[in-house]
Design goal:
Chain lengths: 300, 295
């Protein structure tokens, strides 16, 4: 019961199969309440699938998920703001029309909040959505998601299609909304790369080839992941770390490792900090190699 | 929800109403002129066929109101928006279906009232056209209303299945036509046991012999039949058979199977029941596709 209040999302072995293809497999993650969590992974990693399962648009093929303490899925949509990848809105309707629509079909709804958000950015309320730019449309969609007064915001690649300036504005709006909610709002958003979300997120989930590679707070991730450089060692073994990726030259070995204890000292290794981006890339690369190996093994 | 349906559908609703208005204008102007002149000989077959074309209004509604109803939402991705708001998919679906079916049914009612009035105008023949003629049967009575409801359900279910508006429109046309011809051609003649009249082909009949060995008899009218057959201008000859062993002076003995015109309303009732059943099936299919399937 204690766990329920701490985590906004908990999944256990969650999987989704389309035909014979597993888009998401054995996904076990936790998203702490009040966090801004970045869900990072390459195309086809299962990010969209995971978000759709969490919001109840799709049903899992295996495993279970608990969202805001509820396992059923459908009954909690009023508390979830969801923004799909292609930012779908009714093209022929205006932002104001959408606000009116939201007011009619939602139990909790703050029209003023949405209007304020939209007008503050000089986006016309009365023009049809199709005449707005991509960045403006994303902002309208965010305003509508926030107007539900959600406890959880699920954003599927919200900034992927935006230019750098619109991206900046969007993330700023988002951080503002989280600050305004005073810890009551949890955000889970996906992206190809951590760069987009690094500044504002405090939690990181790496998803690749349909599986969870990493799920931790960004500070923990940075503390426990180091680059070790030393004399060539083809098969280095050490109980203090696990190897995420390794590069061997004739004389030197460079490894990205995950430390079991944050304080690690070993005279034979030169220890360096690594950027979050490098860490996520290493996990994605590792997952791809693993998948490739399994595939070739299967062929043989 | 009704607010959204109105916002989304008003253009299509207005176009549909224009179609019905055009039909009404034609039926009323031609009908009034017939009534005034009381000269049935002058009823043009073009007029007759245009009024009968009212049977096609439901399929148009099915194609342009029904098929895009759900497929448009899948196509633009807005289903993911609306299904994550505070309204259940079931309520969303049934509000859309109910409103569109009711408006379509009212359009059908308007067409039916117009056509039924037109065909019922007093003439020296007593009746215009034949009430069992497939297009006329479909343009009058209960049929335009029931067909419209079915067409919306069919279009919506196909749209939910295919998720693409253009494909859904084409498939709706194909499947609706298939159902229409199947029912009109194969089921309708059997709603009630046909009356039978055996008669010897009179003079004036032409016996056609075909290369494949079959033959048929064309007679201008059934002069020799019983009074009920002779005087029933609304009757429907569903089938004629020839008995080649019973040759008469003019050709083989012929059996005529027919449904008397007075059975029109019982046939309308039976067919309405069939189409209402089909409509219920389409609603169930749409429910399963929308509510039980992934977004």
């Amino acid at each position: 019961m204690e766990q329920m209040t701490v985590n906004a999302i908990e999944t256990q072995g969650l999987g989704k199969r389309y035909g014979s293809f597993w888009a998401l497999q054995d996904c076990t993650i936790t998203v702490p309440k009040g966090s801004i969590t970045a869900l990072v992974g390459p195309n086809g990693a299962g990010k969209s699938t995971l978000l759709k399962l969490l919001v109840g648009l799709n049903r899992p093929s295996s495993g279970s998920c608990t969202v805001l303490g509820d396992t059923s899925g459908a009954s909690i949509t009023p508390s979830i703001g969801y923004l799909a990848q292609e930012v779908p809105l009714y093209k022929q309707l205006s932002a104001e029309d959408h606000i009116q629509l939201g007011r009619r079909i939602n139990i909790r709804w703050d029209s003023e909040l949405a209007r304020e958000h939209i007008t503050k950015l000089d986006i016309p309320l009365d023009r049809s959505v199709k005449s707005l730019s991509g960045g403006q449309r994303a902002q309208v969609a965010l305003a509508l998601a926030l107007a539900k007064k959600p406890k959880l915001l699920l954003l599927d690649e919200p900034v992927a299609a935006l230019d750098p300036l619109a991206r900046e504005d969007f993330l700023q709006s988002l951080t503002q909304a989280v600050a305004d909610a005073e810890g009551e709002l949890t955000v889970l958003m996906s992206s190809h790369l951590i760069n987009d979300l690094e500044r504002i997120s405090d939690h990181l989930i790496v998803l690749a080839t349909g599986k969870t590679q990493l799920c931790d707070s960004t500070s923990n991730v940075q503390q426990t992941h180091k680059l070790l450089i030393g004399a060539r060692q083809p098969q280095p073994k050490n109980d203090a770390f696990t190897i995420v990726s390794a590069v061997h030259t004739p004389r030197q070995t460079t490894m990205l490792v995950r430390l079991k204890q944050p304080n690690f000292h070993d005279p034979q290794w030169q220890i360096q900090d690594v950027a979050l981006e490098e860490i996520t890339l290493a996990y994605m690369r590792g997952a791809r190699q693993q998948a490739h190996k399994q595939l070739t093994k299967g062929d043989a | 929800m009704f607010w959204l349906i109105w916002k989304q559908q008003r253009k299509q609703f207005l176009l549909g109403l224009l179609l019905v208005a055009a039909y009404a204008a034609f039926v009323l102007t031609t009908g009034i002129s017939i009534d005034h002149r009381r000269q049935p000989d002058l009823i043009s077959t073009t007029w007759l066929n245009i009024v009968r074309a009212g049977y096609a209004v439901p399929v148009l509604l099915g194609m342009f109101w029904g098929a895009p109803l759900i497929s448009n939402e899948y196509d633009s991705g807005t289903n993911k928006f609306i299904w994550t708001q505070g309204i259940s998919r079931r309520k969303w679906l049934f509000s859309k279906l109910a409103v569109t079916m009711i408006v379509a049914g009212l359009c059908g009612l308007a067409c039916s009232l117009l056509a039924s009035w037109w065909f019922g105008l007093p003439t020296s023949y007593g009746v215009i056209g034949s009430r069992f003629y497939p297009a006329q049967f479909g343009a009058t009575g209960l049929m335009p209303i029931i067909y419209s409801i079915f067409a919306i359900g069919l279009g919506a279910a196909i749209g939910a299945w295919l998720k693409k508006p253009v494909a859904a429109i084409a498939t709706t046309l194909a499947l609706y036509s298939f159902a229409f011809f199947l029912v009109a051609g194969y089921l309708r003649p059997n709603y009630m046991t046909a009356y039978r009249y055996i008669y010897k082909a009179p003079t004036g009949c032409v016996t056609n012999h075909y290369p494949n060995g079959s033959s048929s008899v064309d007679c201008a009218h059934y002069d020799e039949g019983p009074a009920s057959l002779r005087n029933d201008m609304g009757l429907w000859v569903t089938r004629t058979t020839l008995n080649m062993r019973q040759q008469t002076a003019t050709g083989p003995q012929q059996t005529v199977f027919y449904q008397p015109g007075r059975r029109y309303w019982r046939f309308q009732g039976t067919e309405a029941g069939i189409y209402l059943g089909l409509s219920a099936l389409t609603a169930v299919a749409a429910y399963r596709l929308v509510v039980k399937r992934d977004a």
